[in-house]
Amino acid sequence: MQRWTSQLSSILGIMYETEHFLSAEQVHQNLMRKGSDIGIATVYRNLKKLVGQGLISEVSWKDVKYYTRHPFSNAFFVCVKCDKLLRMDIPIADQTYLSNEIGMSVKKWRMTFEGICEECERCI
Ligand SMILES: [Zn+2]
User: Fold this and answer.
1) The pTM is what?
2) What is the 123 CA–ligand 1 centroid distance (Å)?
3) Which of 7, 35, 55, 124 is most buried, judged by most C-beta within 10 A?
4) CA 47 – ligand 1 centroid, Å
5) Ligand 1 mean position to 4 CA, how many Å?
C-alpha cells in the first residue's frame, strides 16, 4: 500500500499549501508541476477518500467540487472572473443563535459571496 500512501500524502501536501479551495483539476495541475505523474482519476479517488476520512471538506460550485483542508468551511467567496474559491472565516452566528432568531432548527448553513478577486481586480 506504499504507493497509495505516497499519493495520498502528496495530495494532502497540496491541500496544505493553501488556506483556500482547490478543484481536483487544480490539485492535479499542482502535482504535475511538482513532477508527479499521478492521473486525474487517482486524484479524484483520493480526494473522495480524504473527505470520507474527514481530513478535508468539499463544497460544490457550478457542478464542480472544490476541496479545502479545513474540515468545516461554511463561507466562501467566488471570483466571477476566474472561478477561484476563497475560504472565509466569518463568525456571523452559530446555529443556536440562528435557530432562536428564525424559530426553526438550523442544522447547517452556507454562505456564498460573489465578486472579483484581488488578482482579477488588478487586471481590469
Ligand atoms: Zn479572480
Assistant:
1) 0.75
2) 9
3) 7
4) 24
5) 34
